[in-house]
């Protein structure tokens, strides 16, 4: 058993660590945006925080939709049906283009929400401009995630890592030039962040296309050997799998982003502190998410091979590794929260409130790790609707309603705190919502993985 654990853990890690570095680099773009504007002034930071809240909702929803590619390709690879992979990939690129264009339109329209947040006029103007400019990168991101799913499902994660690191280097460089106006360039502040990120996503897409076209390892399944018109039946099949994942991601990220929008009424300090705490939490979250992406691939490959026992073993091993990391990360966040806040901003009030919110971030590490790895393992089984319903219930049935009561203390509520708890109240609701989601998704993974094994035993495919 120990040998089996070591072997499978090594296989998971082989996929996960380049994905992790790639994810960290991608999220690092947002971190650099927040950190670099945080050292400019609170107004520019608030504009980035509000704009990034909308950007994150749409970006992660698109990422969820495109995760269908991971599951579909992994099953084909496990079944050694390599001849179908190029066709699926060409259709997934068409799906990515359409999804990205729709997301770009939705992102621009979503800035209307700023009209209802009682923002300072200058913050409102800068936040809306940030969203309008950064939206140019959305079609590129969607197509990039299609190719991302393709290459990770083939266990080829090196390009994900290197291209994302290149994108991060580009983002930081252009941020430095355009936020502060070095070398005679205009000092654009928050808008400079948007230019850097939006342009960087197109460069990352181009780099991924070039890598796949020329690397020998993709020769057998290269999607760029011929052109192919969109096939609606194929795209619809992937959307049927991907849309529930997108809605699942939307439920979680929109809950966190909604908190950033709702605390805006309390001033630039709470909204800035909330964004910093959320930004750092997102950075830490990349570890369990990367393990989850590796799980989707490994579970899908095992099921493609017809080995349901291996799929179940891989699922629970991945969850266990993720929970172990969560214990370590929660401890480190608690100990070093003051140093973390200092890295983001020099504003004393923002640093004080951020340190308080990071305690909440430490508390929900376990439940967050549990829910993301369990849901990714379930996706490896090509099941996406139940995780979607669980997330919608956990975040919109519990996290946001409870957070709103505690954070806003509305007059019409019969039970509410004496004074609004602002950001701390919302984060209390998020902790409870994540805990509910984690518990239910673990229970569902236990059920579906066990049922697949029992069905295989009943049909005589494996011994009882």
UniProtKB/TrEMBL annotation:
It is a multi-pass membrane protein. It comes from Undibacterium oligocarboniphilum. This is Multidrug-efflux transporter. Pfam families: MatE (PF01554). One of its GO terms (cellular component) is plasma membrane. The lineage of its organism: Bacteria, Pseudomonadati, Pseudomonadota, Betaproteobacteria, Burkholderiales. GO terms for molecular function: antiporter activity; xenobiotic transmembrane transporter activity. Keywords: Antiport, Cell membrane, Ion transport, Membrane, Transmembrane, Transmembrane helix, Transport. Its main location: membrane. InterPro entries: MATE_fam, MATE_MdtK, MdtK-like.
């Amino acid at each position: 058993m120990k040998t089996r654990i070591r072997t499978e853990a090594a296989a998971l890690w082989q996929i996960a660590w380049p994905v992790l570095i790639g994810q960290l680099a991608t999220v690092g773009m947002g971190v650099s945006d927040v950190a670099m504007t945080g050292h400019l002034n609170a107004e520019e930071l608030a504009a980035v925080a509000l704009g990034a809240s909308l950007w994150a909702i749409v970006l992660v929803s698109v990422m969820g939709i495109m995760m269908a590619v991971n599951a579909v390709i992994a099953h084909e690879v496990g079944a050694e049906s390599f001849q179908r992979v190029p066709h699926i990939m060409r259709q997934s690129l068409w799906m990515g283009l359409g999804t990205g264009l729709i997301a770009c339109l939705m992102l621009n329209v979503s800035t209307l929400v700023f009209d209802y947040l009682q923002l300072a006029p200058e913050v409102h103007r800068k936040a809306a401009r940030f969203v309008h400019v950064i939206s140019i990168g959305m079609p590129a991101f969607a197509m990039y995630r299609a190719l991302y799913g393709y290459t990770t499902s083939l266990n080829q994660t090196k390009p994900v890592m290197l291209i994302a690191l290149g994108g991060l280097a580009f983002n930081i460089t252009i941020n430095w030039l355009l936020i502060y106006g070095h070398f005679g360039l205009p000092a654009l502040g928050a808008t400079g962040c948007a230019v850097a990120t939006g342009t960087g996503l197109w460069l990352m897409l181009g780099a991924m296309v070039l890598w796949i076209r020329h690397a020998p390892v993709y020769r057998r399944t290269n999607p760029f050997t011929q052109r192919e018109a969109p096939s609606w039946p194929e795209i619809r099949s992937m959307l049927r799998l991907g849309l529930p994942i997108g809605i699942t991601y939307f439920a979680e990220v929109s809950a966190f982003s909604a908190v950033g929008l709702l605390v805006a009424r309390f001033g630039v300090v709470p909204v800035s502190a909330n964004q910093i705490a959320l930004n750092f939490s997102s950075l830490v979250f990349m570890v369990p998410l990367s393990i989850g992406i590796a799980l989707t691939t490994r579970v899908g490959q095992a099921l493609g091979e017809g080995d349901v026992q291996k799929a179940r073993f891989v699922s629970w091993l991945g969850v266990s590794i993720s929970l172990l990391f969560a214990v370590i990360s929660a401890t480190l966040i608690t100990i070093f929260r003051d140093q973390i806040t200092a890295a983001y901003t020099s504003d004393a009030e923002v640093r004080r409130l951020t340190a308080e919110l990071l305690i909440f971030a430490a508390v929900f590490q376990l439940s967050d790790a549990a829910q993301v790895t369990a849901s990714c393992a379930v996706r490896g089984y090509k099941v996406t609707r139940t995780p979607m319903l669980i997330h919608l219930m956990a975040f919109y049935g519990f996290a946001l309603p409870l957070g709103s009561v505690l954070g806003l203390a509305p007059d019409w509520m019969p039970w509410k705190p004496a004074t609004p708890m602002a950001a701390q109240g919302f984060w209390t609701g998020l902790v409870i919502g994540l805990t509910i989601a984690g518990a239910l998704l673990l229970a569902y993974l236990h059920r579906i993985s066990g049922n697949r094994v029992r069905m295989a035993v009943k049909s005589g495919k494996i011994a009882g």
